[in-house]
Amino acid sequence: MTSHAAIPDRPSHPPVTRIDDFYAVIPAGGAGTRLWPLSRAGQPKFLHDLTGSGRSLIQATFDRVARLADHDGVLVVTGESHASAIVDQLPTLSRGGVLTEPSPRDSMAAIGLAAAVLHRRHGDVVFGSFAADHVITDLTGFDAAIREAVTAAREGWVVTVGISATRPSTAFGYIHAGESLNIERAPSVRAVASFTEKPDAATARTYLSTGEYRWNAGMFIARVTVLLDHLRNQRPALYQGLMEIADAWDTDQQDAVVAQVWPKLEKIAIDHAVAEPVAALGGVAVVPGNFGWDDVGDFNSLAALLPSDDSHGSKVLGDHTDVVRVGSAGSVIVPQSGRLVTVLGLDDVVVVDTPDALLVTTRARAQQVKDMVTELRDRGLDEYM
Amino acid sequence: MTSHAAIPDRPSHPPVTRIDDFYAVIPAGGAGTRLWPLSRAGQPKFLHDLTGSGRSLIQATFDRVARLADHDGVLVVTGESHASAIVDQLPTLSRGGVLTEPSPRDSMAAIGLAAAVLHRRHGDVVFGSFAADHVITDLTGFDAAIREAVTAAREGWVVTVGISATRPSTAFGYIHAGESLNIERAPSVRAVASFTEKPDAATARTYLSTGEYRWNAGMFIARVTVLLDHLRNQRPALYQGLMEIADAWDTDQQDAVVAQVWPKLEKIAIDHAVAEPVAALGGVAVVPGNFGWDDVGDFNSLAALLPSDDSHGSKVLGDHTDVVRVGSAGSVIVPQSGRLVTVLGLDDVVVVDTPDALLVTTRARAQQVKDMVTELRDRGLDEYM
Predict the structure, then answer these.
(1) Cα(B119)–Cα(A155) distance, integer angstroms
(2) Closest approach of chain A CAs to the CA of B326, in angstroms?
(3) pLDDT in tens, B186-238
């Protein structure tokens, strides 16, 4: 398996002008069960280099946002079990740059805590939340979108990023864009008419045909007080709990208060707690993201991010010399055990080879890998999860 | 990988009356490249338990023939690199029961040497040659066929065993049976009209429709002097060389003579050297073998020998608890590394998992596994072969 310790710290992007009073939050949670056995509870997706770039997903995310927010302006919110691996992978992350959760309470608690801590530390700054396990290509497009989003956020909007949909994906939620907001220096920002859940294929095709729907990249940009005010209105108990914790943060009361309050916090996604109800009230905006984006949800989408290893569209994540294919087109091979992986006469097969567990499936079944994880759990094979 | 040391010595068959002055020869050569990566040059097919019986193929062969020839009446002919593994697996094999070849010279040299050594040691006895890596079910049928064959051999025939063909296999050679020989106490023995190479599918179907063709199980039963006389007539130089070696065998000249003469011996199969030309002269007979037989040539034929692991026709050679399948019918899984092997949504797949190499293919491609071995050789990956 890829060792996170083996991934060098190599910020690979040219410097850009940072955005004043802008902070980046990276929620790092979720095991990524559709990427089992590469991704495990103890070694989740964001700690892996899934693109062959030499950087793990969280390192690439950090590199991307630290250019805009500065190294000292990045906060990672994660579980206690991943904190040290993250600090190892991100040596330039500031002290105090990791907020550890004693248990997962979903994204609203994680992002709300970060917003509240930023408010206590820095006042009414703008922050953006960026998942630790997404892949973005075209940084120029990313930078431009975030700059527009920050401009709109300063005006009081909760801003999302809508990726131009290149296919009728059923794996993503969609943002239905409404009227232009005519914001100065943020000309492409529009109101959000509504968010949608992952659609079926026919619905997804309809969305694409209208040109009004974009993929929801799960990014949120807002002033911390704007987000917290919405949270107070929508989920007052969760807001109060987070305020109690934030008041104690960076004090000698922190551990005691977290231990007491955190376990009682409501477990809810930011989408349901704030984004959807506030969109219905007219408070959410969307900036178009015209850059390559993927949440690397499964081995098929992972394949799309890798260069072809041969003229038959085969992909390898790992050491190419560990793989021998005869009569096998379109395969996705993840050799992570040091063993020789050979495939004969099977097209579009997925082979994920780790030191203690092997998965053989097809690209068409990639979304169903979570069913295998469920089966392992049912059989009590927790040591492989 | 299955360790040959882990296979217990457990002769599992009830005793039968042994055949007087009958000796069994087991040529143990051939890596079995269609069973890669389970079968390797250093750990060939015959050292593995391929049926889940708890006995390796050579152990099962020994058990089968030692009942008829006695433990002291069995000779194994093999390469120097396999001699110690064979002795480990066959602790009841007599001293002097292993004839080691310094290099492979094909089956005529191996069987001819055994016949000549038997002649020196025991006189004009009858011997039978039985491949180390075949699987036989129904020992009663086997015993009956060999007893008839020995009776015919005493009369001067070179006797082969023709297995009743249950399908138009293109993986086996066929024996075309001729007239009945009307031998007393060997009523079903017939002359061999001819041997055929492996046929194409249409020819194989024609063979089956006539009822005159049987699978050539590669067994030969003859008086040692009968075989050696045929060899002298057909291949005088090879005969002379083998006589020189046999004269020195069991003496202090053995190693020196073997080193000098063996490398010059003609490399030829007993089929081409003796069986085919002598059949044309009317000297070869066939006894019908009405028992289950397979040469376990590939993973698909291996599958046919294993009990089903589930209601979907899936087969496992190894520890069943190392395998988890979801939506996978007819798969053949060989878990030999101790790792968890999981298959999702792929039917009829073959997964062979060994500590240093993995093969993923399909049952339909089982015969082409040798192409993978060729590819590995072409790439210089000899450490996996």
Answers:
(1) 104
(2) 7
(3) 999 999 999 998 999 999 999 999 989 999 999 999 999 999 999 999 999 99
In 10 A of CB B72, how many CB atoms? 14
Of chain A, the end-to-end C-alpha distance in Å amounts to 14
E strand intervals along B133-198: 135-137, 158-163, 174-180, 190-196
pLDDT tens track for B335-351? 999 999 999 999 999 99
Mean pLDDT along residues A106-133: 97
Contact of B319 with chain A, judged by CB distance below 8 Å, is answered with no
pLDDT digits (tens, 9 = 90+) for B50-65: 998 899 999 999 999 9
Nearest to B217 by CA among B157, B154, B141: B141
Query: What are B110-123's pLDDT values in tens digits?
Result: 999 999 999 999 99
- pTM comes to 0.86
Instruction: Of A4-13, B179-188, B210-219, give the lowest mean pLDDT range.
Output: A4-13
| Angle, in degrees to the nearest 10, between helices A224-234 and A106-122 | 130
CB pair distance less than 8 Å for B361 and A372: no
- Closest residue on chain A to B341 (Cα): A358
A32 Cα to chain B: minimum distance (Å) = 17
Helices (H), chain B: 57-69, 80-89, 106-122, 139-154, 201-210, 224-234, 236-248, 254-261, 270, 276-280, 299-305, 369-378
Buried residues in B272-305 as b, exposed as e (16+ CB within 10 A)? ebbbbbbbeeebbbbbbbbbbbbbbbbbbbbbeb
- Cα A60 from Cα A54, distance rounded (Å): 9
Determine the length of chain A.
Answer: 385
B330 close to A (CB below 8 A): no
Please state the domain extents for chain A. 4-294, 299-384
Contacts with A364 from chain B: Cβ below 8 Å: 345
- Residue in B closest to A361 by C-alpha: B344
| Architecture field, domain B4-294 | Alpha-Beta Complex (3.90)
Closest residue to B339, CB basis, from A326, A358, A362: A358
Query: Which residue in the set B343, B349, B384 is minimally distant from A340, CB to CB?
Result: B384
Give, in order, the Cα–Cα distances in Å from B34 to each of A305, B275, B372. 35, 26, 9
Which of B 8-37 lie inside 8 A of A, CB atoms?
A: 37
Alpha-carbon distance of B276 to B270, in angstroms, equals 9
Across the interface, do A324 and B365 touch by the CB < 8 Å criterion? no
